[in-house]
Amino acid sequence: MPNDAYLDSSVQWRIKAGTLDFHEAGYRSTVEAILSAGLATEVVGLISAGKEADVYLCRYKGAELAIKTYRLYRTSHRGGGPIKVDSMGYLAAHEYEMTYKAWKGGAPVPTPARRVENMFSMRYIGDVDGPAPRLKDVGLDNPSEFLELTLAGIEVMAKTGVVHGDLSAYNIRVLQGKPWFIGFSEAVRVDRTGMAPWMRLTKAGDALTHGLEALQSYLRRYDLTVEIKPFVKRLVESLDKFGVMS
Question: Which residue in 63, 142, 176, 215 is a FRET match for 11, CA 20 to 30 A apart?
């Protein structure tokens, strides 16, 4: 994991100067941070709270958007001091990059807008009734069709170089009967240099298997089965441009 390269200069300066406040920001402080960073002109309120980050419904000059803010200390990971600030900045940068690559390739993901430190803005997936519900919170009218759309979305993401690592029913939103993928903090890139191709593809295959197993646990209520091994094998082989997995 990189240490300083991805951090904004303001964070690096505060770490070196010892002026960074090592206390978890409250609601008001987070709102002030969002507004002062220029990510939004109005914060409507908190719409989602996860293990590591919170999501706020905001507006930028009247247009609705969602802003994800990674917590610096109150997370599922242990740590503290500058290392925790570093880690959360890395996760925000990583998720922003993965979401952007998937979106640019046509995958059904929120359009990313900007990132500042441990926060980034993106398209708000919802309507006048509120945020699009999580898959775990809805009953599907046509579960077989929804599964086909989900698997097709996974393939589109893979073609862009992104393999989602946590495809649980918490990270798939349902809007107008279609899946939207969120939560790319554990996503794996399969098109980048920096490690041996077989290591990268093996890691991607493991992440995809883990994600599909999480999805499978939800689909049991509909008596649907995902043929995980053949799907992963076919997808990894399609990404193996040099035949290193043969």
Answer: 63
